[in-house]
Amino acid sequence: MKVIEHINAAKDAPLVSFEILPPLKGKGINALWAHLDPLMEFKPSFINVTYHRSESMFKRKLDGTFEKVEVRKRPGTVGICAAIMNRYGVDAVAHLICGGFSKQETEDALIDLNFLGIDNVLVLRGDAPKNEAMFEPEPGGHKYAIELMQQVNNMNNGIYIEEDLKNAVKTNFCIGVAGYPEKHFEAPNLQADLNYLKAKVDAGAEYIVTQMFFDNSKYFAFVQNCRAAGINVPIIPGLKPISTKKQLSVIPRTFHVDIPEALSNEVLKCKTDADVEVVGTEWLLQQSKELRAAKVPVLHYYTLGKPHMVANVVKEM
Predict the structure, then answer these.
(1) What tens digit of pLDDT does each residue of 231-289 get?
(2) Which of 36, 68, 214, 235 has a CA 20 to 30 Å removed from the CA of 154?
(3) How far is CA 254 from CA 128, 257, 263, in A?
């Protein structure tokens, strides 16, 4: 079932969904089940599985010189989506990213997803590698998310990279995209960012999932601005709990979002990270209650290693 179908069927009752990371290379899937099993009691409508680009590393050779190698630390998105649907009977949403993938590799992933009956994708540009300041596309890859969207749309219309294919099977992917209530850090201004987002919606995106935020007023303003710009698809709020003091600096630097003064002040009063979890859980609970009262389409939680905190919040909803 497609994400947009879940949303349309729910009407005014907000759904719940979760986002997870694939295990690190060399790790088994049992840790992922331990992560997800406690969350299944909340009957999520879908589970997002992130995709990760390869990273450049330098390995020392026997002669003392260094060799640059490409390593993907979290492979397995397609397989994990299939495993989630098989184990839980819950729809999975595979992230697709531009960075680190050629058009051919993207097509192969889409073919595999289609074979497995996975008909939901979240299309993203992705970030630059950790050791590079600017995003650069893979040779033969996409530079922008809207280009990646077009490839998915083409396959939905039976158009593959090999133009001479006859009677090619049409895929049937529901496409979601990302939105940034506090502006994508590379956009020159909020209006330009909205223009980019509207172009993706006009090109066929059926819903938007936001970057995490900790101030609901920024989400509500974002929705209002989107509607004024003619963006009328569902806008799903992305939510994450604060769990450590370190995150007060890591989250703004990594995700380019603000942490409200009231929240940071309470976190700074904490003596231990266990105390921070209490503060972060309560803040997320109040955010969730306000958003639910506002009848958002879905409460989407970035679990990212803290499923118990998310479980404690959803349990109180």
Answers:
(1) 999 999 999 999 999 999 999 998 999 999 999 999 999 999 999 999 999 999 999 99
(2) 235
(3) 12, 8, 18
